[in-house]
Amino acid sequence: MAGKNKKITLKRIQQIFFRSQIILIVSLALFLGVAGTLINIHFETQKRDQNLQNVAETIARSPMLIDDGKDSAILAEYLDSLKDTLDNIDVISVVGKDNVRLYHSNHELIGTVYDGTTPEFESDEEGYYATNDIGPSGTQRRAYAAIYDADGNYIGFVMAIMLMQNIHRETLQTAFIFILITIAAILMELLISTELSGTIKKSLLGYEPDVFSAMYQVRDNILESLDEGIIAVDREGTVQFVNHAASAMLGDRNIVGQQLDNVKLCSENVLMDKVPIRENDETVGEVAILHDRAEYMKLVEDLTGTRYLVDSMRANNHDFTNKLHVILGLIQMEMYEEAVSYIENITIVQRATISKIMNAVNEPAVAALLIGKTARASELNVKFILREGCYYSNTDMNLPSEVLVTVIGNLIDNAFEAMNEKNDAYDVQKELLFGIYSRPGAVLITTDDTGTGISEQDLEHIFENGYSTKGEGRGTGLYQVKTMVESLGGTITVESQEGAGTSFSVSFTK
Q: How many CB atoms lie within 10 A of CB 295?
């Protein structure tokens, strides 16, 4: 049933074209056929009457009829031969003044009395005229012509006759020809409409017009509902379509018909991506997608936070594996109370650490980073301490989260490396104190470690690109941190004492 409905749908456009074309061509053909037939009959009637009148007049002016001493046999022979040369004349009749037939194509009527309509030539200035009448041969069309002698006296008349049955036959032949022309025109129009419907359907990619229209409306609704700006461009680079979002981002400018390369963005907060449209390995246009930089950066921040949450989970997983090994060992040693106490302690510590970070920092990416670094510190046997009073809110000063993540991540990683260099000092507790504080218009970030410290000579070069005491391919982290901080108007300072540790301080103010 579904296949049948699909077949009917696919033929709908042909049916529409056939129906409309048939109605048009049949109506037009009938109108032209009827009008042509009537016009043709009218002209044929005039031509026929003129022919009949010419024949009647020619015979009436023949010297053989005017001569008083005319021979009936010679007259009959003459008129018979004349009639044989006239295919469209059925009867010729000559009637004398006394209404006796001097000649008739039917020789049996020669000499008989004519009892038909007697023409009145006095009312006809031409001396001849045509009319319909009934004679011995049936209904007929007659043309009369008066015969006058040399002195101008009326001596009779001539009738040139064409039978109505022959006239009707010619009329039917004319109508039949027009019918054939009409049928041929209809067949030609059907072929043309079939080809035209196929061409149109091909240009519509095989869809019916109503389906194509519905698809266009759905596509238009989808494009207009997007938050991203959409600009469609043809192969010449001319803008063909702009949705409402793109129009709003461009300051409600009408750019349809303009070159996309000449369109300038009205704000630096708008980003543009271009995607080429290819058909049969040929670029036939492109789609420009406009993004709101604020939304784009928010998405980047969310993704960055997600990445660090994953890193945090990976680090915690490693830390939890170590703790599970401890628990397994305590159980195998049948130290059940110690195992329960150990589980309770690590649960409390873990929960307290995460809760403290989440309460202090409301930026997801930064909080995820600190949670991950806490787990990493546990693996490195470093005591990670979040300073009391830490609080950060991006409403106080909206700094890009990727900048904060880069700055804090580099500072903490440098601290871890510095403290891991003290492999020979097992009796020294490795501690990292981290602080982040914000108030309206200002942000402060601090790190204090108990690492090896930095010499005065190295302290002057630590922010230079590529400078490092740990080998080649290093020395870019602090340079990147300093560059980012200063690009946002902030400052970074460092204090260090060899053998005691290092402190970094980063501040931002409006």
A: 13
Q: How far is 129 from 121, CA to CA, in rounded Å?
A: 8
- Tell me how crowded residue 46 is: count the other CB atoms within 10 A of its CB: 11
Half-sphere exposure of 22 (CA within 13 A, CB side): 7
3-state secondary structure at position 445: strand
Domain map of the chain by residue range?
A: 1-225, 227-291, 296-509
DSSP string of 52-72? HHHHHHHHHT-HHHH-TT--H
**Position 197: which residue type?**
S
Q: Is the pLDDT of residue 176 over 70?
A: yes
Going 486 to 490 to 495 to 496, the CA torsion angle's sign is negative
Q: For the range 166-173, what are the long-range contacts, defined as Cβ-Cβ under 8 Å and sequence gap of 24 or more? A: 166/90, 167/48, 167/141, 170/44, 171/41, 171/44
Distances (CA, A) of 427 to 104, 422, 424: 157, 10, 9
What is the CATH number that goes with domain 1-225?
3.30.450.20
If DSSP codes are grouped into helix, strand and coil, which group holds residue 476?
coil
Determine contact, residues 275/232, Cβ cutoff 8 Å. no
pTM comes to: 0.40
C-alpha span between 162 and 48 (Å, rounded): 9
Q: Are 375 and 456 spatial neighbours (Cβ–Cβ below 8 Å)? A: no
Q: Which residue has the tokens 């470093």?
A: 382
pLDDT tens sequence across 36-60: 777 877 787 788 888 888 888 888 8
The CATH number of the structural domain formed by 227-291 is: 3.30.450.20
Is 492:482 a contact under the CB 8 Å cutoff? yes
User: What is d(CA 264, CA 244) in angstroms, rounded to the nearest whole number?
Assistant: 17
Gap between the Cα atoms of 344 and 338, Å rounded: 10
Q: Which helix (H) or strand (E) holds 160?
A: strand 154-163
Helix or strand holding residue 211 (H, E): helix 209-225
Q: What does the alpha-carbon distance between residue 494 and residue 438 come to, in Å, rounded to a whole number?
A: 20
Which pLDDT tens digit goes with each residue over 57-95? 888 888 877 766 567 788 888 888 888 888 778 888 888
Q: How far is Cα 61 from Cα 66, in angstroms, rounded to an integer?
A: 7
CATH topology for 296-509 is: Heat Shock Protein 90 (3.30.565)
Secondary structure (DSSP) of 238-287: BEEEE-HHHHHHTTS---TTSBGGGPPPS-TTEEEEEEEEEETTEEEEEE
Q: Tokens 């149109």 identify what position? A: 200
CB 370 within 8 A of CB 408: yes
pLDDT of residue 380: 80
| Distances, alpha carbon 484 to alpha carbons 400, 426, 510, in Å | 10, 36, 15
Q: Which residues pair with 435 in a beta bridge?
A: 446
- Per-residue pLDDT band for 4 (boundaries 50, 70, 90) equals very low
Mapping DSSP onto H, E and C, the string for 91-105 reads: EEEEEECCCEEEEEC
Q: Is it true that 1-225 and 227-291 share their CATH fold?
A: yes
- Residue whose C-alpha is closest to residue 242's, from 228, 229, 251, 260: 229
Helix (H, G, I), strand (E, B), or coil: what is residue 488?
A: coil
